[in-house]
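#struct-help
A.M.: can someone run this one for me? Single chain, 153 residues.
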Amino acid sequence: MHLTLRQPNIFQAVATHSSYTRAAEELHLTQPAVSMQIKQLEDNIGLPLFEQLGKSLFLTSAGEELLGYCERISQQLRDAEDAFANMKSLSNGKLSITVASTANYFAANLLAAFSQQHPEITIRLNVTNREKLLKDLKFNRLCCLIRLEDMAA
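D.P.: on it. Structure tokens below:
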């Protein structure tokens, strides 16, 4: 099945309102654009999703099945939005820092202060020797590096 991310949203709006027109108003689209997206979705699936009886619009069994999937897809997208918003706001997440052993105590003090300001962030401090640190950097095995010169600034 090939569908755009917009089509489940349009389908849900039509199913919720039992109306192409009200769905179009909610989504700020034209009614023909909504009808076209539903038609494309039905063609792609190979089954009708709605049945019109007089002026009333009803979900078919295929439509009911698709609605469940669309609701789960929408929830997953909302969860992803929430996760990214949390990452942007420093309200949760992980911070991994590797320092040379010469910066261990200074880095620990800085991270303690950061941790007090952002208690939801999980911090991992890795202390290693300079040679290993440079080797890990060369092969992109470190997420973050604090150099003694940077901390003194």
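A.M.: thanks! Confidence is low (pLDDT under 50) at residues 144-153.
D.P.: also worth noting: Helices lie at 6-17, 20-27, 31-45, 61-89, 104-117, 130-138, 148-152.
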